[in-house]
Write a structure and sequence with these properties.
single chain; Elongation Factor Tu (Ef-tu), domain 3; alpha+beta; 30 strands
C-alpha cells in the first residue's frame, strides 16, 4: 500500500496548497549604477536555497571567467543574463526573479542603474508594492538615487527600504550609515514617502541580508529578508468601486456574448446593475463565467467573463462599473509624463496612447513644467528629453473613462508610442480631467459639409503640397489655384510664408514650432474643406507624423498628399529666397535639408518630379488627378 509520504501526487498537492496560502510581495531593487543591486538579489536567491546545483556549478564557472570577485562567487551573475551586462558588469534590462521562503512568495525586479536605462526602471516599478533603493556607502545619495526615489513615489510605491550597501568597504561605520540615512530622509520628506526602513548591509559578504552577522552590532533592526517577509502589504481592493476594463469580447457562437477581463478593483455580483463607460449605457450582470464554472461574485484580481442581461454595445477598451459608482469620462487631462526616448517630446505632436485595453490618439499640449529630480523644483521647459519628467496637458481624440493613477493604477497609468514606428516613447499618470473638457460640447449644425459642397457643385478637399524649400510648391499651388478658379471652382490657398505673417507669426523654426505650425494649419484646412472649398496647402511640412495627423482630420478621399519632389542640390541651386546660402553660412538654424531633416512621403497620392515637369505641367497633372477622383463633380445634396 502506498503511504501518503511516498505518494508524489499527494506531496505535490500539499506543496501547492501550502504555496497558495502564502502572500505574494512584488518588489524592485533600484539605485545608481554599481550600487550592488544584482549582487543583492543573487545573495537573496542563494541564501534562500532556490539556486539549483547545476545553476550553482554554472555560477562558479562564470564567476571565474567573467566575475568581479576573483575566485569567490559573483552573485550578480545569477541575475545579469544579457551578454552585454556580464561584459560590463551592469544591468541593462529589467530582470524578474521568483523565489519563496517559508513565510512568503516574492517576485523581484532587478532594474538598471544607468541613467540611460531609467525607462526600464519605471517599467519594473509600475507593478511593485515595495522598493529596495540601494546606496553605495562610499558614494552616498546620488542624482540617480533621487530620480529612482521620485519615480517610486510617483508610481505609487508607498514602502521604501533604503539599503546602505557595501558597509564592509567603509569599515562598517555607524556614523557613515547615519549620515546617509539623514540625507535620504530629508529628500524623502519632500516626496511625501511615509514608510522608510533603513538597513545597512553588505550584499557581497551577506551581512544583514538573510542573517545579521557580527560586523554591525550597533544595528538592531531586521535583516532585509526578515523585513521583506514581515512587511504588511494587505490592500483591500475589494472595498474600492468596481472597475472592469474589457479586454476581449468573447463570442464563440451566436448564443454567447461575454466580456472578458481582469477585475481592476471592487467586487460585482450576479443581478447587480452596471453602467458602461464612456457610453453611459446600463444593464445587469447575468452571469460571471470562469473556466471552472460560474461564480456568484467576482472580486479584484480575478479574471472573469461577464455576460449582461440586455443586448448592450460593449467593445474592447470600455469599462464596466456599478450603476451606483460610475466612472468619470473626459478627453482632456493633466498628467505626469516620464519621457523614455532619445527623440525629444514635442508639444503639439500626436502620439498613440495605451490606457488599459484602449488605444487612443493623444496630443501633448502644453507642457506646464519639467521636474528637477535633485531639488523637485518646477522648471520652465518647452520639451522633454530622455529621462525627463514633466507635467503636461493631454488632449485625447475621444472621450474615455478613467480614474486618477493615485486611485487606480490600471485606469490612470498609460504609455505613449510613436505613431510611425510604434516605439514606446513615454509613460505617464493621469491626475484629473481638465474643467474645460466638461464645459465644451459639440454643437449640432443643420447645415453640414455636404450641403455646402453641393451648393458649390464640388467636393471640399485638401491638396497638401509638401517638399523642400525651393522645390516649387508655391509656384505650382498658385497655378493650380488659377486653373481651378478659371473653371469656376471655389478654392483657397494657404501658403507657408503667408500664414506665418498672421496666424503663426508667434512660431519659430524649432522642431516643436514646426509641429505646432502644421497642427494649426491642418485645423484651418479642415474647416475650409468643411465649408466646401478646395483647399490648397503649400508648406514644407517636413515631418510625416504631422502630415499624417492632417490626413486623419479629413474624411475618406478628401486628402491628397502631393510630394513636390526636387533633389536637395536642385532645390539649393534654385534658392529663390537665398535661404540655403544663409543656412550654409550658419545664419539660419533648423533649416530643412541642411540641419533639420525632411521626411519624404512614403505613399503620396501624387508625386511630382520638378526636374522632369514644368510647373504648368505639374499643375495640370494635379488638377486632372482630383478631377478623376470626383472632386470637381457636383456633390449630392443632403436629405
Amino acid at each position: 500500500m502506498t503511504t501518503p509520504a511516498a505518494d508524489p501526487a499527494a506531496n505535490l498537492a500539499r506543496y501547492l496548497e501550502a504555496q497558495s496560502q502564502k502572500t505574494l510581495l512584488r518588489f524592485i531593487t533600484c539605485g545608481s549604477v554599481d550600487d550592488g543591486k544584482s549582487t543583492l538579489i543573487g545573495r537573496l536567491l542563494y541564501e534562500s536555497s532556490v539556486v539549483l546545483e547545476d545553476q550553482l556549478a554554472a555560477l562558479a564557472t562564470d564567476s571565474r571567467k567573467v566575475g568581479s570577485r576573483g575566485a569567490e562567487l559573483d552573485f550578480a551573475l545569477l541575475v545579469d543574463g544579457l551578454a552585454a551586462e556580464r561584459e560590463q558588469g551592469i544591468t541593462i534590462d529589467v530582470a524578474y526573479r521568483y523565489f519563496a521562503t517559508a513565510r512568503r512568495k516574492f517576485i523581484v525586479a532587478d532594474t538598471p542603474g544607468h541613467e540611460q536605462y531609467t525607462r526600464n526602471m519605471a517599467t519594473g516599478a509600475s507593478t511593485a508594492e515595495l522598493a529596495v533603493i540601494l546606496v553605495d556607502a562610499r558614494k552616498g545619495v546620488l542624482t540617480q538615487t533621487r530620480r529612482h526615489s521620485y519615480l517610486c513615489a510617483l508610481l505609487g510605491i508607498k514602502r521604501i527600504v533604503l539599503a546602505i550597501n557595501k558597509m564592509d568597504l567603509v569599515g562598517y561605520q555607524q556614523e557613515r550609515a547615519r549620515a546617509i540615512e539623514d540625507e535620504y530622509r530629508e529628500f524623502a520628506a519632500l516626496l511625501g514617502v511615509g514608510e522608510i526602513r533603513v538597513i545597512p548591509l553588505s550584499a557581497a559578504l551577506g551581512d544583514n541580508v538573510v542573517a545579521a552577522g557580527g560586523n554591525m552590532p550597533w544595528y538592531q533592526g531586521p535583516t532585509l529578508l526578515g523585513h521583506l517577509e514581515s512587511v504588511d502589504i494587505a490592500v483591500d481592493d475589494g472595498a474600492a468601486p468596481f472597475r472592469f476594463p474589457v479586454q476581449w469580447v468573447n463570442r464563440p457562437n451566436s448564443d454567447f456574448r461575454g466580456f472578458a477581463g481582469l477585475v481592476a478593483s471592487g467586487r460585482i455580483a450576479t443581478g447587480q446593475a452596471v453602467r458602461i463607460a464612456p457610453s453611459g449605457r446600463e444593464s445587469t450582470i447575468e452571469r460571471i463565467v470562469t473556466a471552472t464554472g460560474d461564480l456568484r461574485e467576482a472580486v479584484a484580481g480575478q479574471s472573469v467573463t461577464l455576460t449582461l442581461a440586455s443586448d448592450v454595445d460593449v467593445s474592447r477598451g470600455d469599462i464596466i462599473t456599478t450603476r451606483e459608482a460610475p466612472l468619470e469620462c473626459a478627453d482632456q487631462f493633466e498628467a505626469t509624463l516620464i519621457w523614455m526616448h532619445e527623440e525629444p517630446m514635442l508639444q503639439g505632436r500626436q502620439y498613440l496612447l495605451k490606457l488599459g485595453a484602449q488605444t487612443l490618439l493623444a496630443t501633448v499640449m502644453p507642457l506646464k513644467y519639467r521636474v528637477n529630480v535633485d531639488t523637485l523644483e518646477h522648471e520652465a521647459a518647452e520639451r522633454l528629453e530622455l529621462n525627463d519628467i514633466g507635467v503636461c496637458e493631454l488632449q485625447f481624440d475621444r472621450v474615455t473613462g478613467f480614474e486618477p493613477y493615485t486611485a487606480n493604477r490600471a485606469l490612470g497609468g498609460f504609455i505613449l508610442m510613436d505613431r510611425l514606428t510604434n516605439d514606446t516613447v513615454g509613460a505617464g499618470l493621469l491626475h484629473f480631467a481638465l474643467r474645460r473638457s466638461q464645459n465644451i460640447h459639440w454643437q449640432a449644425l443643420e447645415i453640414d459639409r455636404r450641403v455646402r459642397a453641393a451648393q458649390k457643385g464640388q467636393r471640399g478637399c485638401v491638396l497638401w503640397l509638401t517638399g523642400l524649400s525651393g522645390a516649387g510648391k508655391s509656384t505650382i499651388a498658385n497655378l493650380i489655384d488659377k486653373r481651378l478658379v478659371a473653371l469656376g471652382r471655389h478654392t483657397y490657398l494657404l501658403d507657408g510664408d503667408n500664414v506665418r505673417h498672421g496666424l503663426n507669426k508667434d512660431l519659430g523654426f524649432t522642431p516643436q514650432d514646426r509641429v505646432e505650425n502644421i497642427r494649426r494649419v491642418a485645423e484651418v484646412a479642415r474647416l475650409m474643406a468643411e465649408a466646401g472649398l478646395i483647399t490648397l496647402v503649400s508648406f514644407i511640412s517636413p515631418f510625416r507624423s504631422e502630415r499624417r495627423m492632417a490626413r486623419e482630420l479629413m474624411g475618406e478621399g478628401e486628402f491628397f498628399e502631393v510630394h513636390v519632389d526636387a533633389p536637395l542640390a536642385a532645390a539649393e541651386a534654385r534658392d529663390p529666397k537665398g535661404l540655403y546660402k544663409k543656412a550654409r553660412r550658419g545664419e539660419l538654424s533648423n533649416f530643412t535639408g541642411i540641419d533639420s531633416p525632411y521626411e519624404a512621403p512614403e505613399h503620396p497620392e501624387i508625386h511630382i518630379d520638378t526636374t522632369a515637369l514644368t510647373p504648368e505641367q505639374a499643375a495640370e497633372r494635379i488638377v486632372e488627378h482630383i478631377a478623376r477622383a470626383g472632386v470637381l463633380a457636383p456633390a449630392p445634396r443632403a436629405g
